[in-house]
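Two records follow; treat each independently.
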Amino acid sequence: MKHTIASLTIAAAAIAACHASAAPLSAAMQRTQLNASASNVRVERSENILFVGADINIDSVSRGTNRELWIAPVIGNGAAADTLPVVVMAGRNRYYQAQRHDLVEREGVTLLRDNYRDHTYSYTASVPYTDAMDGKPLRFILELRGCCSDSIERQELLLTNIDVAPPVETFFPAFNWITPTAETVKTREIRGQAYIDFPVNKTVIYPDYRRNTVELAKIRATIDSVHKDNDITITAISIRGYASPEGPWDNNVRLAKGRTAALKKYVEELYHFAPDFIQTSYDPEDWGGLRAYVEKSNIANREGILSIIDSNLKPDPKNDKIRATYPQQYAFLLSEVYPALRHSDYKIDYTIRSYTDVNEILTLVRTRPQNLSLQEFYLASRAVEEGSAQYNEIFETAVRMYPESEVANLNAANVAMARADYDRAATYLAKCGDMPEAVYARGILAALKGDYATARAQFEQAAKLRVADAPAALEQLDAMKK
């Protein structure tokens, strides 16, 4: 009896020594394969809780009464890894020894009695979720320990990568607004065309003759639009008169020159410009206008008439040949087209003063937008709330005043995309050329319309062109898995 007691005492001392020297879980990498495997891996997230589950096949693990199988799931790598609740499956002797030495309380593990009959262990755990877990690997570290908790075998199973972050459904664009270059001098011009009717072979203007009231009013309205504006200085006016090709060349020279001089005199007397302020020129016969009409028309013998117009014949023989070769078509041209070739083209050059007061500019956006430069429109936009109706109006008015400007069209496209008017945005972007900001904006439009393949291609090109926001746009597509 004494011998038995002595033996138990010695065994207890040995067990205590073994626990004191137990190898920590993360101390050694796998040395031999336990040939365990995992199936039915489950990783789910509910609010701030992460659920992990897997069935671990341990049929090949050589367990016994004096052995422990430690199952430790880990998320991540290295020192920053998160260890999930550890499970210890202990043989009969190790189970009772672990209870006596408070293994559960000391190590914070779940202790199970191994019945040796289970071929699979179904692991489940719920832990607090952090954003840092997303994208990290989920590994199960299995370690078989002996009677003194020494490591016998170790195996690491890489199960999956954590992918439970809420999917990004919406693309949020970062628009690139272009600041227009300020103009040193705001130089502008207005062009117009008037059809003043003169009695046959006359060079005197009769204001009430035929449609002259309307045509002269057009000229006055054009001049008044700048002449009455105190912010505008007219710097030059030019008039070029044209006559039609019928009749002798010398007479057409006289008519074109005289009628142009008559219009100049009319304007000078109306506005009291200095005699030499208005510059004039003339074209005795507007063959260019005739050719432009014929080329666009469906008139019979169109190519034949064009060949005569393009010939090296002098003006009078050229007109005679059209009349003789194509009399029916000539009669039509004479009555329907030649009158429109008798016109006066005029151009007014002027300068506009610059504006720096934002409140004044905001007023001009609604009252006289034609006086503003693109840079002044942009200055006004900085003073109002982005995305507001007034903000949108500023950029839309700017592109209306400068319809061919790539900068105006790019900024207007941003406004249109911001309010989901994608058709109008596409129209504006079509006028933006290939500047880097336009490539990037086309990527935004494609992303907003759900065409992510095109969006990615545009953003990649914009990134190569060093558009600062392009890499972030690509990251958004990555987050959306697009």
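The next record belongs to a different protein.
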Amino acid sequence: MGRNLLIATVIGACVGSTAQSDVALNIGYLSVFEPQPPTLSNLDPEPADIGLAGALTGLSDNATTGRFLGHTYTLTDVILQEGDDPLAAAADLFAETRFLIVDAPAETLLAIADLPQAQDALLFNATAGDVDLRRDGCRANVLHTVTSDAMRTDALAQIFVKRRWDDLVMITGTHPQDVAYADAMRASLTKFGLALSGEKTWAFDADMRRAAAQEVPLFTQELGDYDVLVVADELHDFGRYILYNTWQARPVAGSEGLTAVTWSPVIEQWGAAQLQSRFEEAHSRDMTSQDYAAWAAMRTLGEAVTRTDAADVQTLRDYILSDDFELAGFKGRPLTYRDWNGQLRQPIAIAHPRALVAQAPLEGFLHQTNELDTLGLDRPESNCEAFE
């Protein structure tokens, strides 16, 4: 069900005669099978190694530094199939390591975090964007390297304000992920002084590959005129058929068109092209947002070990949540963690498939302590008490 992946590091001589101590850190990676409903198109199949490839790239980056400091990193990955028990698999991993990168839906992540074996462990959420995981459902032993839905919708709301696109309509799918994204979008629009002037629910079961040019114009006609059509289609089911088929020739944003994402192949500044090329050379594909989140989790641990010369949970967690921690994330500014809910602060790319349009937070959106906290739940909004 899994395999042990080891990158051994060579103890090097340090500057002068001071020797670094030997530190070994084993990290677990758990991918939980999540069945997905059928979609209208299979044009973009999900890579079989999504997430894991990012963790492996981070492992390699850690080893580059570790070989000079006497630090050794190993990765034990477990990829579950349909019917496998994620709690049993997590318990087995906790017998080997106290550090776990998790690719799982929110309810499974919480169940893993609540296991007795997890109470003195540190988990990294690399997949679930659910806002409640950073709010009432937060756990002290869970940090989030994946951006929340609210961070992504806040980024889009900022560009709507900046471009003075204030007449907005939305089409929402029926799947839970679509509804959650739509809820986050409404909250973001309210936060930045905007509102929807119209909404519709997409509940078609027809084959849009043949009928989109006929059905979509009629479906969107009653929305009237507007500045931007927001699409809440997190499964990427119908959204691709909305573009260029609307009754009004207007921009499409949200899950399709102009999107706000953790990572994109079109990010090339701030040294990102180097990370992109390393990843592509190793895995023969582009890096995704999920890969980046797993990479960031692995690099967070590597950076913490480098700075503290330790490998125990308490020391690393305390350092990661401290003001001293910074992660070079190839996004133009250091990444840090919110000490009130464990979310990794990071800029959000606003892009279309061919180019980067902007990076949030946008100029003019100010914050009393950190402009990155204009994205997602700020301290007064989080209601998370586990980190107090």
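Discussion point: The CA atoms of residues 193 and 304 lie 39 Å apart. How would you locate this feature using only the token line?
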